[in-house]
Amino acid sequence: MRKAILTFVLLSSILLSGCSVLDEVNSSLEYVNEATEHINTWKDFGEAAPQMIQDAATDPNAKEELETRLNEMLVEIDEFNNTEAPAIAESVHQQIVDKNKELQGVMENAMVDGEVALEKLQDSELFTLIDEVTTMMNLLEDLGS
Fold it and tell me: pTM score, two decimals?
């Protein structure tokens, strides 16, 4: 009887620790997917922004669209920065958060009274920072494998 109980306890411990590992793997995969989506959002914005800025210089509707997009990106930053990263991804998450904060500062500095100052945005390091964020995709791919 004692051996049966001991065997049951050991098997239960093994199964429970296995569930914990499985939860960690699932959490890591979910994080990698979310971070990949976030980086792809920046990549898409980085590809569209030069034309949006050029159009905004001559078209008030395009300028309004750019301002809306910048505000959406600021919300995206806040949402991602508040994401809880699994332990295995904490350093990668912190690197992305740090770049997000730099991007946030650039975009906020380019806004004057709620309107985008195109000259400030064009002269900023926005595109360099976006490139730096998108290169972090490699770090995520390493986590995913």
Answer: 0.78
Q: How far apart are CA 71 and CA 60, in angstroms?
A: 17
User: Is domain 31-144 given the CATH code 1.20.120 in the classification?
Assistant: yes
Q: How far apart are CA 29 and CA 86, in angstroms?
A: 9
Assess whether pLDDT exceeds 50 at residue 15. no
Residues 137 and 76: their CA atoms lie apart, in Å, by 17
Residue 132: which residues within 8 A CB-CB, separation 6 or more?
99
SS3 at position 116: strand
Tens of pLDDT, residue by residue over 17-74, are 555 555 565 777 898 889 999 999 999 999 999 999 999 999 999 999 999 999 999 9
> What one-character-per-residue DSSP string does 9-54 give?
HHHHHHHHHHHHHHHHHHHHHHHHHHHHHHHHHHHHHHHHHHHHHH
| Measured distance CA(104)–CA(77) in Å, rounded | 7
